[in-house]
């Protein structure tokens, strides 16, 4: 799939070299797309690693300020998924993500840029549409430069070329989301009046049992979505529900962690559940999990990892690798016993950093829709 990069944008080979440096890999083969720990773990250069801003407990997340980029941290993302129905009642999913990576720590001396093109920040955007029998995905890259990619404050905007989240205020909503590629595209309207949900301890989200790694993390799981999608030249009117996650950190995983299994579950119109687990790189087994039950009025309940059970019940082979595309999720303390199944088990993102991402169907004590992300396989 062609990326359609303009000449001003960074060449892919140069970007990947920068990311090798960013992710602290001593050898090219260590930047394995299957090992998320090598991507989001510590920088090998200890002095450089210490120059990135650490995630610490007790820092207040505020709005709309924290919708903006946090350039002193190594990485962050704006991550939207949406479960939609077209005019014929067919289910489909839309994903849009813009990532920011710091290729090097900010200059603490705050020396001015020599040119407008000078930047230590790299943006990567992913876009996808998934139906029961089709899955299309694409990506774009750019440096942080006002003409190409970045984040604007008032009105709020996240953009990379013509893939753009554009709000009419300094908040995330109301907004439009537009992205077009060769085989698919979408133009969506996004609205929400629900309070944001701060994950973990008021937005401080640990990613290991020992608490050594963490991120700042908040969500909006109650978004109304409407608009149109185009698939293979055919345009459909769509409507449904969306979910955005905002997360930033300087070290997301331990070296010993390989990847994660993440679920955004819409249990009914007023209740959503986020649940994820991180896996050990050696054993492949989960070594940390977290869940939060969220209500549309802004209230929520953090669930202890001892009360969470995630069990893969079906594997799908894609390109010689097995992805667990059906799961049983059990949280007895909340009377939740559900099976989640991929709408399209072949929804692997065949991008420069491959992973599985797609819509799911929920059955059991609750019924509904959601999204699943599987990394490190």
Describe this structure in words.
This protein is mainly β and 377 residues long. Strands 1, 2, 3, 4, 5, 6, 7, 8, 9, 10, 11, 12 and 13 form a 13-stranded antiparallel β-sheet that branches. Strands 14, 15, 16, 17, 18, 19, 20, 21, 22 and 23 form a ten-stranded antiparallel β-sheet that branches. Strand 11 and strand 12 form a beta hairpin. The radius of gyration is 20 Å and the shape is globular.
Order of helices and strands: HHHEEEEEEEEEEEEEEEEEEEEEEE
Helix fraction bin: under 10%
Going by CATH, what is the homologous superfamily? AttH-like domain
Radius of gyration: 20 Å
Low-confidence stretches: 1-37
> How is the CATH topology named?
AttH-like fold
Which CATH architecture is right? Beta Barrel
CATH class: Mainly Beta
Oligomer: single chain
Structural class: mainly beta
* Overall pLDDT level: 87
User: Which strand-content bin applies to the residues?
Assistant: over 45%
Please give the number of β-strands.
Answer: 23
Shape: globular
How many domain regions?
Answer: 1
Number of helices: 3
State the separation between the terminal residues, measured CA to CA.
Answer: 22 Å
Largest sheet: 13 strands, antiparallel
């Amino acid at each position: 799939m062609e990326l359609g990069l303009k000449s001003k944008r960074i060449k892919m080979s140069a970007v990947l070299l920068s990311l090798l440096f960013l992710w602290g890999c001593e050898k090219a083969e260590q930047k394995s797309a299957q090992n998320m720990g090598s991507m989001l773990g510590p920088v090998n250069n200890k002095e450089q690693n210490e120059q990135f801003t650490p995630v610490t407990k007790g820092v207040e997340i505020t709005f709309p300020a924290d919708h903006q980029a946090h350039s002193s941290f190594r990485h962050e993302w704006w991550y939207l998924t949406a479960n939609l129905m077209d005019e014929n009642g067919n289910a489909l999913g839309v994903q849009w993500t813009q990532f920011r990576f710091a290729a090097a720590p900010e200059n603490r001396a705050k020396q001015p840029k020599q040119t407008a093109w000078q930047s230590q920040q790299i943006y990567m955007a992913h876009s996808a549409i998934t139906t029961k029998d089709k899955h299309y995905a694409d990506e774009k890259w750019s440096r942080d430069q006002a003409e190409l990619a970045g984040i604007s404050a008032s009105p709020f905007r996240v953009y990379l070329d013509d893939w753009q989240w554009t709000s009419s205020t300094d908040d995330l909503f109301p907004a439009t989301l537009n992205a077009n590629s060769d085989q698919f595209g979408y133009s969506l309207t996004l609205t929400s009046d629900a309070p944001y949900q701060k994950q973990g301890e008021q937005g401080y989200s640990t990613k290991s049992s020992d608490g050594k790694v963490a991120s700042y993390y908040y969500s909006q799981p109650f978004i109304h979505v409407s608009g149109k999608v185009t698939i293979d030249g055919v345009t459909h009117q769509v409507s449904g529900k969306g979910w955005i996650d905002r997360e930033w950190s300087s070290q997301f995983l331990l070296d010993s962690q390989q990847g994660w299994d993440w679920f955004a579950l819409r249990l009914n119109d007023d209740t959503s559940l986020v649940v994820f687990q991180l896996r050990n790189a050696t054993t492949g087994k989960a070594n940390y999990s977290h869940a939060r039950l969220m209500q549309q009025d802004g209230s929520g309940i953090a669930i202890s990892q001892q009360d969470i059970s995630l069990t893969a019940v079906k594997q799908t082979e894609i390109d010689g690798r097995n992805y667990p595309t059906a799961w049983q999720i059990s949280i007895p303390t909340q009377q939740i016993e559900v099976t989640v199944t991929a709408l399209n088990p072949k929804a692997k993102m065949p991008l420069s950093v491959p992973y599985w991402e797609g819509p799911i169907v929920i059955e059991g004590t609750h019924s509904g829709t959601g999204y699943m992300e599987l990394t490190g396989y």
